[in-house]
Design brief:
This protein is α/β, with parallel strands linked by helices and 428 residues long. It has 2 domains: 53 residues; 344 residues, TIM Barrel (Alpha-Beta Barrel). Helix content is 51%, strand content 7%. An 8-stranded parallel β-sheet has the order 7-6-5-4-3-2-1-8. The radius of gyration is 35 Å and the shape is globular.
């Protein structure tokens, strides 16, 4: 190969090397650019990836190479009445809060017997101590116009003093337990016993009974009725509730209780389901004891109450029957934290208003003074004390218990918040 040929060959080799280098450089630059783009996508592109993840239809697997972001938990829906209630309670005095936890007769409020009107004395007494509710007996109710006027005045006093309605209540079950239908001063048809309603097997009859009772109570001015009875019937016991119950089958009773509640509440009257835990005994005149276990109660007696809780009942009345197999002692259910807090609130998840059965009942007064009973009931988890045997003693007992630290004011606030929340909903 001569000199010229070698020169030409070197030029060709140089050109080839230049091309190879250029190609290599392009490849390297492209690789670097691609990597940089990928990193920027990884770091800054998450927001763009999220819609793709959210767009994946339920039940469709995401591609294995993509990280599926979990859906955010939906924000809990706040109850507007609950927030308003907390604000209202924060502005109350301790004395007013404790008063809200009592349901008493107009006689106990004023200090007079057989009260049939709500005038200046009632207003003065209420302004001093604005109780949460009033309960009226047959001796307070003479006829339609008298009752309407008395209740309207009482409601007016309450709203003027507290800005809230008051629970105006009565016991109107039907059959042998009535304050209106069994009163000669009222032209009202009695719906009959709940046993008779239950024996029809038709929940429409229970609903109709609820609407009938709710209609005449609402027309008179009542907004709360201590009914229906959700206990299962017990046969052969002298303390049995008998024909006040719908029957002995837990699911059938649950259906009837639900229907009657719906009927009453469709007329604007709240029902208070009673007597938790539903063992079918009447402790009104003396001590009653049931040896049912917690497991047995959950399987049978608590079925109607669980249904009521699931359907949003606002009031449950706790009875006075002792449950030694559940609590380990003979303390009435209404005064037991095991029954009220552990069983009703814990096991059933109830967060509505817990009302004691009448604290003037023999099952309570035979063993406890009014102040001791009131403190025990609130400590157990009750929100409202119904018919204390001695209202002044019961009220002062609670006040002393809070002042000496036996019961915290935070515990009082819990109950009063529940009470005020229902009143705000009632007032909507």
């Amino acid at each position: 190969m001569n000199r010229e040929e070698r020169r030409l060959k070197r030029q060709q080799d140089t050109r080839r090397a230049t091309v190879v280098f250029a190609v290599f450089a392009v490849i390297v630059i492209a690789a670097v650019a691609g990597a940089a783009f990928g990193i920027s996508r990884f770091v800054g592109g998450k927001a763009k990836e999220k819609p793709q993840t959210e767009a994946i239809e339920p039940g469709t697997e995401a591609p294995a190479t993509e990280e599926v972001q979990p859906e955010p938990e939906p924000a809990p829906v706040e109850d507007p009445f609950l927030e308003q209630a907390k604000t209202a309670v924060a502005g109350m005095t301790l004395e007013d809060k404790l008063a809200q936890m009592f349901i008493i007769t107009p006689d106990a409020l004023t200090g007079y017997g057989g009260v049939t009107a709500a005038g200046d004395t009632t207003k003065e007494s209420y302004n001093k101590r604005p109780v949460g509710g009033m309960i009226y007996s047959a001796n307070n109710l003479t006829d339609t116009e008298q009752t309407k006027t008395m209740l309207a005045n009482m409601q007016g006093f309450a709203k003027e003093r507290t800005g809230l309605p008051i629970f105006l209540s009565v016991i109107e079950e039907g059959g042998s337990v009535t304050r209106i239908a069994g009163n000669a001063g009222f032209s009202v048809t009695d719906v009959g016993t709940m046993q008779a309603v239950g024996e029809t097997g038709d929940t429409q009859n229970a609903y109709n009974a609820g609407t009938v009772i709710g209609t005449y109570l609402a027309e008179l001015g009542f907004n709360l009725n201590y009914a229906p009875v959700a206990d299962l019937r017990v046969e052969g016991d002298t303390m049995s509730l008998g024909d006040r119950t719908f029957g002995a089958d837990a699911n059938a009773v649950a259906d009837m209780v639900s229907a009657e509640l719906q009927g009453m509440e469709s007329m604007g009257v709240y029902g208070a389901v009673k007597f938790f835990p539903g063992v079918g005994l009447d402790a009104g005149s003396g001590s009653a004891v049931s040896n049912r276990t917690a497991e047995e109660l959950l399987a049978q007696e608590l079925v109607p109450f669980r249904r009521a809780v699931e359907e949003g009942v606002s009031f449950i009345v706790v009875g006075h029957t002792a449950l030694p197999q559940v609590t380990g002692d003979n303390v009435p259910a209404s005064l037991s934290a095991v029954v009220v807090t552990d069983l009703l609130r814990g096991q059933l998840g109830y967060d509505g208003i817990v009302v004691t059965d009448a604290m003037s009942a023999g099952a309570v007064t035979g063993t406890y003074n009014s102040d001791t009973a009131a403190v025990m009931a609130v400590s157990a988890g009750a929100d409202m004390i119904l018919l204390p045997a001695d209202y002044e003693t019961a009220y002062n007992g609670l006040l002393t218990a809070v002042n000496n630290g036996t019961i915290t004011e935070e515990r009082i606030n819990e109950s009063v918040t529940r009470i005020v929340r229902v009143k705000l909903a009632m007032n909507r």
